[in-house]
Amino acid sequence: MSAGQLARRRSSSSSSRPPIRTTTPVTPYPLDKEFEPCAATASIFLYAQGSTIICLHHDTLAIDRRFELHQERILFLSVDNVSERGAGRLVVSYDAGQTAIVWDLFTGDEIARFASYEPIRVAAWMKNGNVAFGNSQGNAILFEPSTSEHISARTIYDPITAIAPAADCQTYALGYLNGSILLVALQPSFTILHTLPTPRAPSPITNLAWHASSPKQKSDMLAIQTLDGHLRIWSIAKPAAAKTPEVIRILKRSENVNQGPNWIAWSKNGRVLQYAEGYVFKVLCESNAKVHV
After folding, report:
1. How far is CA 199 from each of CA 210, 249, 261, rounded to the nearest angstrom?
2. What is the pLDDT of residues 158-193, one digit of tens each?
3. What is the tens place of the pLDDT at every residue in 43-91?
4. Phi and psi based region of residue 52 (left: phi greater than 0; alpha: psi -120 to 50; beta: remaining)
5. Residues 6+ apart with CB under 8 A from 76
């Protein structure tokens, strides 16, 4: 498929199944160098052990349910905390057999299933209730759980390691293994809106995260985390093509940083929580200050 070419296909799905509740004990899975797959809603914390997802209540840590429809080890999972339909209820989980399952956290029912030809590396929910996937061939895939249809767009030939759909569901931030960062449109055809400059020694992109803004604001903030711990925050115009993006914060780690698992997330008050080198930092966007949490 040439760059910019889109394809719409119907994915395999299955009918609703009864709620998944079981007393089967969970066998601990040996820790990897990566984070164990986990996600959270306002009231439930989810984490994976092998092919099972355990759902716990925040306040008591009591097990609400176990989801056991996967046949192989779960590699990542994501909860829909952004769309009106999902509202902290829908989950997408992906396993080593290259199967993604969208399911209902409240009932345990399977909603849809997507079998990928190439390994998927990352997923993110969109405000319209769809799921955006990025795979190892550099393809961005938009999956609609309600119809089980998907659209695939070839980007650049490098694994996508981070993906972040903007609130308008038209602009996407894509991060790659080679350190490239693109702001793109996927429909009606793949279009590069901006290429964000990277440091002199590029590092794989591990996280991309938009900070929610009101419709009245003229720009959004996009936080970018690299494997070596560097964090950059960009100001992106709305719409993205209207103005060249500007860097508003650059936070560099030491030269001898120990590359390892790290992540970032926005808080509601506009600060960034960053995990790097075994520490959690609270980044104050008004300055370059960092505070240990």
Report:
1. 20, 13, 19
2. 999 999 999 999 999 999 999 999 999 999 999 999
3. 999 999 999 999 999 999 999 999 999 999 999 999 999 998 878 899 9
4. beta
5. 37, 93, 94, 122, 123
